[in-house]
Amino acid sequence: MTVRVQTADFDAGREIADLRGSDPRVGAVASFIGIVRDINDGATVATMTLEHYPGMTEKALTDIVADARARFDILDALVVHRVGELRPADQIVLVVVTSAHRGDAFDACRFIMDYLKTRAPFWKKEGTSEGARWVDARVSDDDAAARWQKQTRHGNDT
Amino acid sequence: MPDSSPTSVTAITVRVVYLARLREAFGRSGESLAIAADAPTVAAVLTTLRGREGVWARELAAGRAVRVAVNHELVPADAPVGEGDEIALLPPVTGG
Questions:
Q1: Would an 8 Å CB–CB cutoff place B93 in contact with chain A?
Q2: Most exposed among A6, A52, B21, B68, judged by the fewest C-beta atoms under 10 Å?
Q3: How many helices (H) and strands (E) does chain A have?
């Protein structure tokens, strides 16, 4: 289980290969990549600056991954989140989960993203044609995270 | 002779950290803050800061979505705080 916060870009293919290693138990890998969009709430985004709360961020991400491991039958997980100034089409976040079967890999990957969105201390500030503005949190993100609290885990079939 | 002051209230000193929008609104990234209370809580910290009025009262008004982390752990308003704790005020997070 690894979490990293970094300014540098990441290579998803290499990260996936590293996480899998040569573990023959891995039957499924699910991954998610978040990317900077060029339009948000009607304004053109020129830059997206991400800041975080060093110290707490790593702890929050580690807790989320540990929670995923407790809920789902997964073998390993990786979270890489970038900070600093990004531009449209830049990669922001990578989540990779390995498991024996696809159900747990998909579910754990989504769970980690849903919780990251509402619990990890990152903030986005957009530079737009109308000036700089902090991005507002979305109620839909809270709803997505809350969904997991009333849901029992899925089966384990491939 | 016992102390003649009406109540003896202990004061503790905590480190407060302001993040993202709050850092910009308050014009600082953090500060050392003395809290006078018998059993200091997160709520007492917020009350102390609101007492400065102006932008402090506006940004920390009841109903504003500000979450609090004590020593890097999200906690509710009635959570206790102690000497030397790091208390961070977080606007709603928007990562990912």
A1: yes
A2: A6
A3: 4, 9
